[in-house]
């Protein structure tokens, strides 16, 4: 029995040693890769930062220091939203620390005095598992030359001193649930929490001063500055709400007053945006990689999130530049068209990239339009539309593994769905889009007369856009009425009726806005509208009543 116990113990030790070797090797590989790509491939750099941070699951101080490094790297690239997400993820871990009561399990060394020693203690703890420095992103034994060429130095700013464990605040629960952070960071439920620990472990593992209520407040204050930079005012409101509850609980009334004023300002910015509808938050691109030299990227597709100022040409140039170092000749980085690719037909010595601009895909009822925030928060589906067989339309919907926004600004595509619309369905969708654009302009405050008149002219003047009447001729002329798409035929009838109604609303609204100089335009569109309405109503009379319609036979 003693021999068996010794063998079992030896096997456990061997397993643990193998795990330590595996982790050290992985960390050194990550670190070496960062030093090579930090200036040419920001997406890979942040992915490696995340992997290193998560690898320190059982060393929370080092884990959050790597989150802070990622914050600094994103901020340097002006990826304000991603930087804010890093801060919020750090804050959520601190909130979990407080909710678990770990603050009460810390020795006095984890209290105010920890702030003074956190620098040296975190330095030593950061070296133990993988000899990787979170402040520089390179191994502790690396030369000064290699340090200067690796990840930019991102020292963690000291947080305010930790509150005393005897504080009445810390002997009670937080004034909100840690689940509230998911309203700011949509992927938190996918992330590792904190390890379950005993009292002695807590004292040794949580030595940074950010593990405190004051540290939580500081993180939220830093996060909201980044959120304001990204113009995500909805998330600013959520963050200020958390701060206000903390200030109220701690009796920090001057800070509470300032916080509520900031809340008011963010709400004002949001109201202004709802009137102007001028806020742009991000652009999205799909990138597919083909070629053995891409290694693990070969055959994979990603969705990239870019600032609203980005454009397709600039983005394409930056992606090609990121992988230029993998081939000898710049011409060996080949941009493919957005058609099906057969990897067997590609030159193995070249890199092939497919790029397309996408739109967020948010399903809404009828011809409603998702708001700006809904299109950019908690979003994981994206759509690419293309012509199919001349008169039909193909929609390709991409789903990613997590949701934007996140710690990273590219996410792996996990599934792809293709929808082929018939000519009739494509026509219905065109009408829905036109109705939605008219409704959006009618709801804009203050009214934009020039925009409204452009939409009216494009809708009712045949020489500019004969779309609706052409649709009627193609599908509602008595000899062309489709027999096999009865349901779609009724949807077309309803879409045309809505289109006519919304055009009428728009023209009457425009009449209230115009001055004398615009009267000729108003008279012209009213005349054109009357003709269009009469013609469309004549075509609609050809649609059989719902009760008279016969469903096609089931084969």
Helix and strand string, N-terminal first? HHHHHHHHHHHEEHEEEEEHHHHH
List segments where confidence is low: pLDDT < 50 over at least 5 consecutive residues: 109-172, 547-555
How many E-type strands? 7
Strand arrangement, largest sheet? 1-2-7-6-5-4
Distance between the termini: 73 Å
Cα-based radius of gyration, to the nearest Å: 30 Å
Determine the number of helices (DSSP H or I, runs of at least 4 residues): 17
Strand content: 5-15%
Helix share bin = 40-55%
**Alpha-beta classification:** alpha+beta
Overall 3D shape: globular
Characteristics of this structure?
six-stranded antiparallel β-barrel; disordered C terminus; 555 residues; 17 helices; alpha+beta
How does this structure look, described?
There is one protein chain. By secondary structure, this protein is of the alpha+beta class. It is 50% helix and 11% strand. The protein contains 17 helices and seven strands. The chain has helices at 2-37, 42-55, 60-76, 80-99, 102-105, 114-127, 144-149, 199-205, 213-229, 233-250, 253-276, 312-322, 423-442, 449-460, 467-475, 486-513, 519-540, and strands at residues 283-290, 301-306, 333-336, 351-360, 379-388, 392-404, 410-421. A six-stranded antiparallel barrel has the order 1-2-7-6-5-4. Strand 6 and strand 7 (410-421) form a beta hairpin. The protein is globular, with a radius of gyration of 30 Å. Mean pLDDT is 83; it is low at 109-172 and 547-555.
Give the topology:
Elements: H1 2-37, H2 42-55, H3 60-76, H4 80-99, H5 102-105, H6 114-127, H7 144-149, H8 199-205, H9 213-229, H10 233-250, H11 253-276, E1 283-290, E2 301-306, H12 312-322, E3 333-336, E4 351-360, E5 379-388, E6 392-404, E7 410-421, H13 423-442, H14 449-460, H15 467-475, H16 486-513, H17 519-540
Parallel strand pairs: 3-4
Antiparallel strand pairs: 1-2, 1-4, 2-7, 4-5, 5-6, 6-7
Helix pairs in contact: 1-2, 2-3, 3-4, 4-9, 9-10, 10-11, 13-14, 13-16, 14-16, 15-17, 16-17
């Amino acid at each position: 029995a003693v021999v068996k116990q010794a063998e079992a113990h030896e096997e456990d030790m061997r397993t643990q040693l193998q795990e330590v070797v595996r982790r050290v090797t992985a960390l050194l590989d990550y670190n070496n890769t960062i030093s090579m790509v930090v200036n040419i491939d920001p997406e890979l750099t942040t992915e490696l930062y995340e992997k290193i941070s998560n690898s320190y699951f059982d060393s929370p101080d080092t884990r959050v220091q790597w989150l802070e490094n990622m914050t600094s790297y994103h901020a340097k690239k002006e990826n304000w939203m991603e930087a804010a997400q890093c801060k919020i993820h750090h804050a959520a871990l601190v909130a979990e620390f407080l909710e678990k009561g770990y603050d009460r399990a810390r020795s006095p060394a984890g209290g105010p005095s920890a702030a003074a020693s956190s620098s040296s203690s975190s330095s030593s703890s950061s070296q133990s598992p993988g000899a990787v420095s979170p402040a520089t992103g390179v191994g502790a034994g690396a030369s000064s030359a290699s340090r200067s060429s690796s990840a930019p130095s991102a020292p963690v700013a000291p947080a305010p001193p930790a509150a005393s464990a005897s504080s009445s605040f810390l002997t009670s629960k937080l004034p909100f649930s840690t689940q509230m952070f998911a309203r700011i960071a949509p992927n938190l439920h996918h992330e590792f929490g904190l390890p379950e620990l005993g009292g002695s472990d807590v004292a040794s593992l949580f030595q940074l001063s950010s593990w405190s209520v004051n540290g939580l407040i500081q993180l939220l204050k830093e996060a909201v500055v980044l959120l304001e930079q990204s113009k995500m005012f909805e998330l600013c409101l959520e963050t200020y709400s958390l701060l206000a509850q903390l200030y109220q609980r701690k009796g920090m009334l001057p800070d509470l007053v300032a916080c509520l004023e900031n809340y008011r300002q963010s709400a004002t910015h949001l109201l202004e945006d709802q009137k102007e509808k001028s806020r742009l938050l991000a652009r999205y691109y799909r990138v597919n990689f083909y070629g053995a030299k891409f290694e693990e990227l070969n055959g994979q597709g990603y969705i990239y999130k870019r600032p609203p100022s980005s454009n397709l040409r600039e983005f394409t140039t930056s992606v090609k530049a990121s992988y230029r170092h993998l081939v000898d000749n710049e011409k060996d980085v080949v941009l493919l068209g957005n058609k099906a690719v057969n990897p067997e037909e590609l030159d193995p010595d070249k890199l092939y990239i497919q790029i397309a601009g996408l739109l967020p895909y948010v399903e809404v009822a009828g011809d409603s339009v998702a708001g700006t925030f809904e299109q950019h928060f908690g979003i994981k589906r994206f759509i690419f539309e293309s012509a199919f067989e001349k008169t039909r339309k193909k929609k390709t919907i991409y789903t990613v593994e997590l949701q934007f926004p996140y710690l990273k600004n590219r996410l792996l595509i996990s599934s792809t769905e293709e929808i082929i619309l018939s000519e009739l369905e494509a026509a219905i969708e065109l009408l829905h889009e036109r109705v939605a654009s008219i409704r959006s302009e009618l709801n804009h405050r203050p009214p934009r007369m020039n925009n409204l008149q452009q939409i009216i002219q494009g809708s009712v003047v045949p020489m500019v856009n004969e779309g609706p009447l052409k649709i009627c001729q193609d599908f509602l002329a008595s000899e062309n009425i489709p027999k096999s798409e009865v349901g779609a035929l009724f949807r077309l009838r309803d879409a045309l009726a809505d289109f006519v109604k919304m055009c009428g609303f728009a023209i009457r609204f425009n009449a209230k806005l115009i001055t004398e100089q615009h009267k000729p335009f108003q008279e012209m569109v009213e005349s054109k509208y009357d003709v269009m309405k009469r013609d469309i109503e004549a075509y609609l009379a050809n649609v059989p009543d719902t009760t008279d319609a016969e469903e096609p036979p089931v084969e």
